[in-house]
Design brief:
Layout lengths: L1 H27 L7 E6 L7 E6 L15 E3 L28 E3 L5
Keywords: Glycoprotein, Signal
């Protein structure tokens, strides 16, 4: 009877160590995951559609939420679509509504 208890503990220890090793292996792979989502354009009507997009989270992601606002795509006069120039000193993206602006930049 005592032998069976020792055997059960050994199996449990080996199982736990195997699970821990597998978890550490997954953490060490360092995979790069691109999170995808979609953007639904409501207006203007000729662009009304759902478009594929990648998510750029700054800070802790707030999953399960939604954001409604005006999409702004900067012209060359306002720093360009890559967002490589500073937007300080002027307000080219001042919202015309009470909703926030969503700055759409080209990924470079």
């Amino acid at each position: 009877m005592g032998y069976e208890v020792v055997m059960d503990k050994s199996i449990m220890i080996v199982t736990v160590l195997g699970l821990m090793a597998g978890y550490c292996w997954e953490m060490g792979e360092g995979r790069f995951v691109v999170e995808t989502n979609s953007i639904t354009v409501v207006q203007p009507y000729d662009l009304h559609a759902k478009h594929n997009a990648s998510i750029s989270d700054f800070g802790v992601p707030k999953y399960g939420g939604s954001l409604v606002g005006s999409v702004v795509y900067p012209s060359a006069q306002h720093g360009g679509p890559l967002g490589c120039s500073s937007f300080q000193g002027f307000k080219p993206f001042k919202s015309k509504t009470s909703r926030p602006n969503i700055l759409l930049l080209d990924r470079g």
